[in-house]
Design goal:
- With 291 residues, the chain is α/β, with parallel strands linked by helices.
- It folds into 2 domains: 2-105 and 200-283, Rossmann fold (3-Layer(aba) Sandwich), CATH 3.40.50.1000; 109-194, Putative mannosyl-3-phosphoglycerate phosphatase, domain 2 (Threonyl-tRNA Synthetase, Chain A, domain 2, 2-Layer Sandwich), CATH 3.30.980.20.
- It has 10 helices and 13 strands.
- The strands form 2 sheets. A 9-stranded mixed sheet has the order 1-13-12-11-2-3-4-5-6, with helices on both faces.
- Strand 9 and strand 10 form a beta hairpin.
- The protein is globular, with a radius of gyration of 20 Å.
- The two termini are 29 Å apart.
- Bound molecules: magnesium ion.
- Magnesium ion (MG) is lined by residues 25, 27-29, 227-228.
Length: 291
């Protein structure tokens, strides 16, 4: 593990009352890429639980995909879906009204699809998107099981599509979508259409709420973990950024966080390595905080 810059050892800060919020990407970060296994992260997961440190999932996954994982991990904290499109808090979590328990930055999927299909009709662009396929077809194209494809299809704020036209046509398509405030991002195989937001907005929204309602008299330190470029904005606004080793990790360059850690191991093993080391340092000379 390489610590590039650190203020964790700052004695004055350590003596002040601090609280911690951990916000994590899932695929390739807390979960293994292929198997979605998180066994290697279990020691650090147990550590967070023992010290009542909230763990927030912030993923490209849909709400339908994240809910079973929250259940498996017995996670009862807020969570962020579809690359930061929306955040959902459990009822009464912050003691606020129902209308304040979620926030949405994304554009509704129905609007995105309508706009893309209209452009396809008008301009003859060649592409297919999730809405054009059955669950069985999505399973075949993505390699997901049919059950997983069904969950992936339950999207609210994004539409993945397979481009079958030229690059110049894609540039035109992207420019036309931009006029409708829709962004095209390149994933592995798919392009994804979304509104204009990123994973950082939910972190800042949650930080403000935790600070106000849960830790009003403490300094709240945010720790974010991610492994690829779509985590860059999230990592950038955290106090402590943990870049999990991956084939894309070297592309992540950060200026914002006070502490930047690059793990040696990928996925949940790297997640475990970084959080165990961090909290060993943080908790070594003070009583655990029971929030
Ligand atoms: Mg990832």
């Amino acid at each position: 593990m390489t610590v590039i810059a650190s203020n964790v050892n700052d004695k004055a800060k350590r003596q002040s009352k601090q609280a911690y919020l951990v916000v994590t990407d899932l695929d390739g970060t807390l979960l293994e890429h292929e198997s979605y296994c998180y066994d290697a992260a279990k020691p650090a997961l147990a550590l967070l639980q023992a010290h009542h440190i909230p763990l927030i999932f912030n993923s490209s996954k849909t709400q339908a995909e994240i809910l079973p994982l929250r259940q498996a991990l017995q996670n009862q904290h807020p969570f962020v879906v579809e690359n930061g499109a929306a955040v959902f808090c459990p009822t009464g979590y912050f003691g606020t009204t129902a209308s304040e328990e979620s926030a949405v930055w994304g554009v509704a999927r129905s609007s995105i699809i309508k706009c893309a299909q209209q452009l396809r009709e008008e301009r003859g662009f060649l592409f297919k998107s999730f809405v054009d396929w059955t669950d069985e077809q999505i399973a075949k194209i993505t390699g997901l099981s049919v059950a997983q494809a069904q969950l992936a299809q339950q999207r609210a704020y994004s539409e993945p599509l397979l481009w079958e036209d030229s690059n110049s046509q894609l540039d035109l398509f992207a420019a036309l979508l931009k006029d409708h405030c829709i962004r095209v991002t390149q994933g592995g195989r798919f392009l994804t259409l979304t509104g204009k937001f990123d994973k950082s907005l939910a972190l800042l929204w949650l930080k403000e709420r935790y600070q106000r309602y849960v830790y009003p008299s403490q300094t709240l330190i945010t720790i974010a973990l991610g492994d690829s470029l779509n985590d860059q904005a999230l990592l950038e606004v955290a106090d402590i950024a943990v870049i999990i080793q991956s084939k894309h990790a070297h592309n992540i360059q950060l200026l914002g966080p006070k502490t930047i850690i690059r793990t040696q191991q990928p996925g949940p093993a790297g997640w475990n390595e970084a959080l165990q080391a961090l909290f060993a340092k943080i908790l070594s000379d003070r009583e655990p905080y029971y929030g």
